[in-house]
Amino acid sequence: MDAMEIGARIKRARKALGVTQEELAELIGVSTRTLGQVERGTGTPSLATVLAAAAAVGVRLEVIP
């Protein structure tokens, strides 16, 4: 699973929950710009930020060794 796919999953789940980018960003303690980068799979957000966003919207991330 690449960064773009992860971001797309987070975005779909956020929208399905009826949460705005601003609301989710505030909930996980990042700027809306950073959350936008996560959702687009661009920039260099920290792993902690990606994990927090995914957890907040109920997206499961799997790592294959």
TrEMBL record:
Listed GO CC annotations: cytosol
One Gene Ontology molecular-function label: DNA binding
Keywords: DNA-binding
DNA-binding among keywords: yes
Protein name: XRE family transcriptional regulator
UniProt-listed InterPro entries: Cro/C1-type_HTH (IPR001387), Lambda_DNA-bd_dom_sf (IPR010982), TransReg_Diox_bact_type (IPR050807)
HTH cro/C1-type domain residues: 10-64
Keyword flag DNA-binding: yes
